[in-house]
Specification:
The complex is a heterodimer. Chain A is of the alpha+beta class. Helices cover 32% and strands 21% of the residues of chain A. In chain A, the strands form two sheets. Chain A has a four-stranded antiparallel β-sheet with strand order 2-3-1-4. A two-stranded antiparallel ribbon of chain A has the order 5-6. Classes of the chains: A alpha+beta, B alpha/beta.
Chain lengths: 159, 389
């Protein structure tokens, strides 16, 4: 059944009958499985992987390392959940290493992102330090290469 | 300014050029062709393997290697065969790294055949088998397998072709062009025949990793087979490494020594950098193979179902990346079907008769092609068929 998830992960638009054709699993079984996964949060949502640079969009992204003074009994959860709720925050991960959280911030301009980090993120209770890295160029995202594909160099008919 | 008038090699002149050539030339001149005619993966070699080769080149892997191939590669090959198929070969003298299975096949046949020896070739078969037998001085004896039985190896049909001159049976499993993956039972019946009639088995297992309906059975793993089996395999299909030209041949020592002798005087060694790449493939590319196999399997299901809905039925291909549907419903010969399909709908397939007379009435379609193209090809084939009813 994981095969169904693999197909959906690479093509969110795959319909149940197409998934059935690709996996050999009966179409109604595919429907039942997907409904169950949607209900219990295994499938969170369906999305397109967009290359915004190519779309001519000039949005700005930064990765911010956040140092946190953890709360007794709750560790990092409380702070992480509070940070995650900001509209500007795209992702929040707890990581090993010198910092505690690595978050992804998105804004319309560098100034907007910088203001968000200075005024909101660093002001969240128990956040003790931030270190901001602006994204310069994406080469691969979501497992998808954003560079030009390699040309198919195969000859058209071969034994 | 004229070349010598004495005849060129009669053996080679008697061998017809590959029937695939004509379609290749035609397809090359056309634009917008969807090709299902390619016998190689549409994936590039996994990047980790390419990176290892680039690194090796920068460190000087530009020399000959020992004739047999890099010792580390032979160790890894033999360990891989033992782990996956339960067959044991000594890396030192029973395993030889070759420039692809193509070279391994040529070595095996030249080391086995005395003039006039017969080699039975169950067909439809890979296009090189029969010419290679002839080039080695042997006589290829094609024996048709039954499409109604999924082109399974039929020991009875083979037995009917055995003569005192029979030196070997040469076959591929999974098969190019039919995709048939042979069962342990059918292989065992052929092995028993080989023991009874005292001949060799030359087993081309280049598609062994690409099986979908069960696990691959290596011929050499069948009881009684090891001592009379030449096992051919390589990296081209499993690891998407066709252009690297690296494969291997394993056989019992006395035969392996003769193959080694030809190889040391003709090829010297397989390309050094390709051998390094093969080492990396065996060490780290397992997840890449798993991903490619999963992808081929999805396309296989979708494509075979699509063909079936168009009335082009084929036995379920258990391995490789080929479907070999019957096109009898169209009323056309294989050649006409392939030629008209290419001209009218710009879909390239390979007519079945180039793989032997029993392939007539079929075409070979490779599903090593991106899904959207496969779906578009099915649509075009549909138009082609409905335009003539």
């Amino acid at each position: 059944m994981r095969e169904i998830l693999s197909v959906l992960e690479s093509d969110a638009r795959a319909t149940p009958d197409r998934i059935a054709a690709l996996t050999g699993i009966a179409e109604d079984e595919v429907r039942t499985a997907i409904a169950a996964w949607e209900a219990d949060g295994v499938i969170r949502r369906y999305k397109a992987v967009v290359d915004w640079d190519r779309a001519g969009d000039s949005r700005v992204t930064a990765f911010v390392d956040v140092t946190v003074a953890p709360e007794r009994g709750r560790g990092f959860d409380d702070v992480a959940e509070r940070i995650a709720k900001f509209r500007e925050i795209r992702a929040v991960h707890l990581v090993s290493g010198a910092q505690d959280l690595r978050v992804e911030v998105e804004g319309a301009s560098m100034k907007e992102v910088a203001d968000f980090v200075a005024q909101k993120l660093s002001g969240v209770e128990r956040v003790t330090a931030t270190s901001t890295h602006f994204l310069l160029r994406r080469y691969k995202d979501d497992g998808q290469l954003l560079t030009d594909p390699e040309p198919d160099q195969r000859l058209s008919v071969m034994p | 300014m004229t070349p010598p008038q004495k005849p060129l090699s009669r053996v080679v002149e008697a061998c017809p050029p590959s029937g695939i050539r004509k379609f290749f030339d035609l397809a090359q001149t056309m634009k917008g062709v969807i090709t299902l005619g390619v016998g190689e993966p549409d994936f590039p070699t996994p990047w980790g393997v390419r990176e290892a080769a680039i690194h090796a080149l920068s460190r000087g892997a530009t020399t000959y290697t020992g004739n047999s191939g890099l010792p580390e590669l032979r160790e890894l090959i033999c360990a891989d065969l033992a782990a996956r198929h339960g067959v044991t070969y000594r890396p030192a003298d029973e395993c030889l790294v070759t420039s692809g299975v193509s070279e391994g096949l040529d070595l095996a046949l030249r080391a086995l055949i005395n003039p006039g020896d017969e080699v039975i070739v169950p067909e439809p078969s890979y296009v090189a088998y029969q010419p290679c037998v002839a080039f080695a001085g042997g006589v290829a004896v094609p024996v048709a397998m039954d499409p109604a039985q999924g082109y399974r190896l039929d020991a009875e049909r083979i037995a009917a072709a055995v003569t005192p001159r029979t030196k070997a049976v040469l076959f591929g499993s999974p098969s190019n062009p039919t995709g048939a993956a042979q069962s342990a039972e059918d292989l065992a019946a052929v092995v028993a025949l080989a023991e009874r009639e005292d001949f060799w088995l030359v087993s081309d297992e280049i598609y062994d990793r690409l099986t979908y309906t069960g696990t691959h059975t290596s011929t050499a793993a069948i009881a009684g087979a090891w001592d009379r089996t030449v096992l051919l395999n390589g990296f081209s299909k499993s690891y998407a490494m066709t252009g690297w030209r690296v494969g291997y041949v394993c056989a019992p020592e006395p035969l392996a020594a003769l193959m080694h002798r030809i190889h040391q005087y003709t090829m010297l060694c397989a390309p050094h950098v390709s051998q390094v790449a093969a080492i990396e493939a065996l060490r780290s590319a397992e997840p890449d193979v798993a991903e490619m196999v999963a992808d081929y399997d999805r396309r296989r299901r979708l494509f075979v179902k699509g063909l079936d809905e168009l009335g082009l039925t084929c036995p379920e291909p258990g391995g490789a990346f080929y479907a070999f549907p019957s096109i009898r419903a169209s009323g056309l010969s294989s050649q006409d079907f392939a030629e008209q399909l290419l001209n009218e709908q710009k879909v390239a397939v390979v007519p079945g008769d180039v793989f032997g007379p029993s392939g007539e009435g079929h075409v070979r379609c490779s599903y090593a092609t991106a899904l959207p193209l496969l779906e578009e090809a099915l649509e075009r084939i549909g138009h082609f068929l409905s335009s003539r009813t």
